[in-house]
Amino acid sequence: MSAHGHVDMGHTVAGWTGTALAVLGSAVAGAGLCLSSGTALWLGLALVAAAGVTTWLLHLAGWGKPSGPRPEAEWDWRVRDTAAHGGHPDCLGCRMSGGRRAVAAAARPRRAALTPAPDTGA
């Protein structure tokens, strides 16, 4: 068992891609700052902004995950979220995309929390 227990930590293609781009952008911006290169600094900041946009677009394409717990069968980071097309309830990214996705996300009830059955001691 991991240090976090038996839970889904939310590792997704969208999350890993956005994180990698943000780390790369931060490194480039930091190097630009140390080298007094305005070009490198702005390029790094543009990469950080691109990381946010890329993560959002991948989330909308189904490579992210909704807020809250997921069934254990969907824990692998390569599993695509089939509910993403209709939008996720309480998801700012889905609401920002506008249109039918935002309306569908607002109308659909939240996914029930997946909690283990209480131990009765028997």
Provide an overview of this structure.
The protein is mainly alpha-helical and 122 residues long. 51% of the residues lie in helices and 0% in strands. Helix 1 packs antiparallel against helix 2. It starts with 12 loop residues before the first helix and ends in a 15-residue tail after the last helix.
Average pLDDT confidence is 79
Structural class assignment: mainly alpha
- Radius of gyration, in Å, reads 19 Å
Count every helix, treating DSSP H or I runs of 4 or more residues as helices.
4
- The end-to-end distance, rounded to whole angstroms, is 23 Å
Explain the layout of strands and helices.
Layout: H1 13-34, H2 38-63, H3 92-96, H4 99-107
Question: Quick recap of the structure?
Answer:
With 122 residues, the chain is mainly α. The protein is built from 4 helices and no strands.
What are the defining features of this structure?
0% strand, elongated, 4 helices, 122 residues, mainly alpha
